[in-house]
Amino acid sequence: LEQGKTVPRGKxxxxxxxxxxxxxxxxxxxxxxxARSHNQSAILALGVxxxxxxxxxxxxxxxxxxxxxxxxxxxxxxxxxxxxxxxxVFSAVFKILADQGVSFAIGEFKELxxxxxxxxxxSFVDLAADRAGTLFAVAATxxxxxxxxxxxxxxxxxxxEELFPPIQGLPEGLSKAGFDRxxxxxxxxxxxxxxxxxxxxxxxxxxxxTAL
Length: 212
Prior knowledge:
Layout: H1 2-5, E1 13-14, H2 16-29, H3 35-50, H4 56-59, E2 76-77, H5 82-99, H6 106-116, H7 124-141, H8 144-156, H9 176-182, H10 189-203, H11 206-209
Parallel strand pairs: 1-2
Helix pairs in contact: 2-3, 2-8, 3-5, 5-6, 5-7, 7-10
């Protein structure tokens, strides 16, 4: 929230603008503590602030009442897009919630994310953001070693390209008929080939190598 106050009104900023200081604080608190749990808390805080305030219905009140009245900076983006920021953040939080045994609510929150798409069709770019968010949570919370590793990597990250892979050439805006015609099903060789391309791009980033 304090970081949000520093964003000039109407200015577009990267998600990295919030992840960097958040995980610096997690690393500071982890010096003599549990890096994994501090990373979990950082991701959940990211979810409440830059994902959906509805997460507080599951997690309990996190922000003081007066802070809930402060609007979230709207133009926080990933790869220049607000929808990809939401896909990344929601997917990271979904992973943490599932690990904590609250998967019963994930379907309901997935509907909130789907609503953001505005009927724009199936997107492998969205899928890349979903995959990156999930792997981010996996790497950040798998065990103490990888948790500290993620903190160290993020400490030196200065470019968004180190957090999110290139999305050029990934199909999106596919209607159901177009998807069925080209890919057929989620387990088809054609679909798996695009998935593999996304994972290959993610593997190029040190942040995700421990999670794949």
